[in-house]
Design brief:
TIM Barrel; eight-stranded parallel beta barrel
């Protein structure tokens, strides 16, 4: 399959392997909960939400992970500092999946890191995200809490229109983040709309070739920003397009994908597992031995 001159890195985060040669480890599926507009949330400012329904959706993600062989992580969107503890405490209790603190603000990031430390889950916590604009307060909290895993977002006004600029940002960010004590870096090549999905996919190949680090993107953003699709209000069409958008980076070689709401897991997981199964067979032809839980061996009994 794809060959890179740089050795590919694999990280273990909370028992989940991410990275490596293409097809070697199952794609890591990252779904979001408590995002803006999430029907689970009754009141964004107080953090009130439907716990029973949330547990049901999380359990469904775990079921889809088991059925397809794909790995899973949970992206916990933290909008307000006052709601962070309730969200993270619930998520930590509801699942053993690694958790991403998807901080909408600096205050939420600080509160989230402190909460993860207090709850004793810092080892399975990933900060989403560190970008070129992240300030010293967050860096100090990373050092203080001993956070080891973070997602690096290659975002800037220039990078949005240039895959090469994304790589240039990483060259500056990686040494700085390493100096904080962060040992496991996941690279997000940034998707805002359909056009940037293409640039993000191009950057994925470049990241693996130049750095060998685990890389992926928030492919779902290409769908959520597609206004004319929203206007059609066609759920089947939207989910079909979401499946394609989330599968494209995997076909290019991404190690993970942020696929959007966890409620979409029953549709997105099978599409991505198909690609994993196809890649798995190609690796087997090359003499590689796959784990019995690999999607290649789950697809037939899905």
């Amino acid at each position: 399959m794809f060959q890179y001159s740089r050795k590919q890195v694999t990280y273990d985060i909370g028992g989940i392997k991410v990275g490596g040669e293409i097809g070697e480890n199952p794609t890591v599926m990252i779904g979001s909960i408590f995002y803006k507009g999430d029907k689970l949330v009754n009141d964004e400012k107080t953090g009130s939400f439907d716990k029973e329904k949330a547990r049901e959706l999380i359990s469904k993600v775990e079921e889809m992970s088991e059925r397809t062989g794909l790995s899973a992580m949970l992206d916990v969107v933290c909008t307000y500092p006052d709601t962070v503890h309730g969200y993270l405490e619930f998520a930590a209790d509801a699942t053993r999946m690694p958790l991403l603190i998807d901080a909408v603000s600096e205050e939420a990031a600080l509160a989230g890191l402190e909460c993860a430390k207090e709850l004793g889950i810092i080892d399975r916590t990933i900060l989403n995200s560190i970008n070129p604009e992240t300030r010293e307060k967050v860096f100090e909290k990373i050092r203080e809490t001993g956070l080891k895993s973070a997602l690096l977002l290659t975002y800037s006004t220039k990078a949005i229109i240039s895959s090469k600029e994304r790589i240039a940002l990483l060259e500056a960010m990686i040494p700085k983040v390493k100096a904080l004590g962060v040992e496991k870096m996941l690279i997000d090549t940034v998707v805002i709309d359909i056009a940037t999905l293409g640039l993000a996919c191009k950057a994925i190949r470049e990241v693996k070739e130049k750095f060998g680090l685990p890389v992926g993107c928030g492919a779902h953003n290409a769908i959520s920003s597609w206004k004319s699709l929203k206007e059609k209000k066609d759920k089947t069409l939207t989910l079909t397009c979401s499946s394609v958008a989330s599968s494209l980076p995997i076909a290019i070689g991404a190690d993970f994908v942020l696929y959007g709401p966890i409620s979409d897991a029953p549709v997105i997981f099978p599409a991505v597992s198909l690609i994993n199964a196809a890649f798995g067979q190609a690796l087997m032809e090359d003499g590689k031995r796959l784990q019995p839980t690999h999607p290649r061996f789950r697809i037939a009994r899905f």
